[in-house]
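re: the backbone from monday

yeah here it is again, tokenized this time
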């Protein structure tokens, strides 16, 4: 079940729902929401997504993914978007979320820290995970208690 997302906004940004995806158990994919991150005037500045639930893939890939267009970096928009996604996660009664990032991506690591994440570990990506086939080998894992 997917919830209405029209309330995902603050005094700077809003999350505009682009699509949802039902669970795909054959791929171990969880249900997910996909958003554009926009300024209040509608200017798209990035994207984010929220995967609902937990399994071995979200431990490595995380529940939340995000990216901010280069021209808009440095304003903590990713952190602000994550906090809006936390509101949606609570509607789904998730007690915690994971966000993972490449150990070399210091900006993403700082976003996790700024947003209140607790560093869990730097983990090896298993060979059967999609991220491994993309050439990634390690992720930093942060936990966010709801």
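seq for it, each position gets an aa:
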């Amino acid at each position: 079940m997917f919830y209405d997302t029209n309330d995902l906004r603050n005094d700077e940004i809003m999350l505009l729902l682009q699509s949802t995806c039902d669970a795909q158990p054959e791929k171990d994919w969880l249900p997910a929401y996909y958003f554009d991150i926009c300024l209040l005037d509608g200017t798209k500045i990035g994207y984010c997504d929220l995967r609902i639930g937990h399994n071995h893939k979200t431990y490595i890939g995380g529940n939340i993914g995000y990216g901010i267009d280069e021209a808009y970096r440095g304003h903590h928009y990713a952190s602000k978007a994550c906090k809006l996604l936390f509101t949606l996660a609570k509607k789904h009664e998730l007690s915690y979320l994971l966000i993972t990032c490449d150990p070399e991506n210091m900006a993403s690591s700082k976003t996790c820290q700024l947003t209140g994440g607790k560093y869990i570990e730097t983990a090896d990506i298993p060979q059967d995970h999609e991220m491994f086939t993309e050439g990634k080998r390690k992720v930093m894992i942060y936990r966010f208690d709801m």
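Helices lie at 56-61, 77-91, 106-114, 130-133. The mean pLDDT is 97.
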